[in-house]
UniProtKB/TrEMBL annotation:
Coiled coil: none
Keywords on record: Acyltransferase, Cell membrane, Membrane, Transferase, Transmembrane, Transmembrane helix
The protein's name: MBOAT, membrane-bound O-acyltransferase family
Gene Ontology CC terms: plasma membrane
Length: 400
């Protein structure tokens, strides 16, 4: 029965991936065979050459696709590659005899493959062996989807629409702020969807956000934004380079390398690389001046982070500079973008409340808890029904 359950998960995952990437799924299948064989070889005492060869293959496919004018990097390849690297490195460090079907399920698991969360093979396989889909998981999963729909289709997509206009002065400042909030809710919603669908299949994926816009330092921000990618970069790049056990200058180079790699993996363009370099410089500066952060410094941190998201939305540095220059030009107040900004901040406050996150991610059968949860969830569901115009699968992070 367990093998049938795993086979269904893998076939469903391959089917979902094929729907989105078409014939590119062959790339995933070929590489998965290589990864499965490699992971098994560690049990026979093989060494580092396997890791080097596998990482070379994964990175070469990425670079070939990114640098080609005629080829497109397949959707989901980034998370697939991160999962594959995590698997082979963990097998080298501490070999475990995973079944072939377990490895394939881990690599292809459809709720996470397009934009994470990036889980670890030990946690995934343990749950794959122990947990099965159960009827009591249906309500928590549905509840998560209700909130994810609200964050994505009611909030994020409407804010994106507002930001499409060309504004100046205060209107442009509000537009940039709206974009930063929309960007967060877009990615946050996808992560909630991924956790919800995985839960329905008996797998608990890790949460990927912890109130990043409440951070009091850049270090705090990167501990709470895309948490699973951050821990992956820490465990498989930062720590092998020496982490914080090296000299200050070497540490700075390590941080710079980690952020440049992260930027390039998102998109091999100048704006993305600049984004990575700036964030590395900000983190290095914080450590050099021993800045611990507080509420007022946190305002500066969040403002800079939101401003730098514009580098994800421009074609070049000139476009980014032009957007910044528009902030100091005059334009009469546009009530639509001002109201949108106020609503965005209001929803952000609502989403960041611990009570809201508890409703989304936790479930208790006590009467008092249900009396609080049920009315709020029903209101969100009604807003989903009334205000959702387009429920297409157009998440921003699915571009990488």
């Amino acid at each position: 029965m367990t093998k049938l359950y795993q086979a269904i998960i893998w076939l469903a995952s391959v089917g979902v991936l094929t729907y989105f990437v078409k014939m590119y799924v062959l790339i995933f299948l070929v590489i998965s065979v290589i990864i499965v064989i490699s992971s098994k070889l560690f049990g026979k005492g093989k060494g580092k050459n396997i890791i080097v060869a596998d990482i070379f293959i994964l990175v070469s496919v990425f670079l070939a696709m990114k640098s080609s004018m005629s080829l497109i990097l397949p959707l989901g390849y980034s998370v697939f590659a991160f999962s594959a690297i995590s698997l082979i490195v963990n097998q080298y460090r501490d070999y475990k005899d995973y079944k072939v079907l377990e490895i394939l399920c881990y690599l292809f698991f459809f709720p996470k493959i397009f934009a994470g969360p990036i889980d670890r093979v030990d946690d995934f396989v343990r749950q794959l062996r122990e947990k099965k889909p159960a009827l009591e998981r249906l309500y928590p999963s549905a509840k998560m989807c209700i909130y994810a729909c609200f964050y994505k289709y009611v909030i994020a997509d409407r804010l994106y629409y507002l930001c499409n206009e060309e504004y100046y002065g205060l209107n442009e400042i509000c537009s940039i702020l709206c974009y930063g909030v929309a960007f967060f809710f877009d990615f946050y919603a996808y992560s909630i969807f991924a956790i919800a669908f995985a839960k329905l299949l008996g797998i608990d994926l890790p949460e990927n956000f912890d109130s990043p816009y409440r951070s009091k330092s850049f270090r705090d921000f990167w501990k709470s934004w895309n948490i699973t990618l951050g821990t992956w970069l820490r465990d498989y790049i930062y720590i092998p380079l020496g982490g914080n056990r090296v000299s200050r200058s070497q540490w700075g180079l390590n941080i710079l390398l980690v952020f440049v790699i992260s930027a390039i993996w998102h998109n091999f363009t100048i704006p993305f690389i600049l984004w990575g370099i700036i964030h590395a410089i900000l983190l290095i500066t914080e450590r050099y001046f021993s800045i611990k952060g507080n509420r007022y410094y946190g305002i500066w941190v969040v403002t800079v982070c939101i401003l730098l998201w514009q580098l994800f939305d421009v074609d070049g540095i000139d476009d980014f500079v032009f957007r910044l220059s528009r902030c100091i030009e005059y334009q009469p107040i546009d009530t639509s973008i001002i109201i949108g900004c106020v609503v965005a901040l209001g929803v952000l406050w609502f989403a960041d409340r611990s009570s809201t996150k508890e409703i989304i991610f936790r479930h208790r059968n006590t009467g008092r808890y249900i009396m609080k949860e049920a009315p709020i969830t029903c209101i969100i569901l009604v807003l989903d029904i009334l205000l959702t115009n387009n429920s297409g699968i157009n998440f921003f992070y699915m571009r990488f």
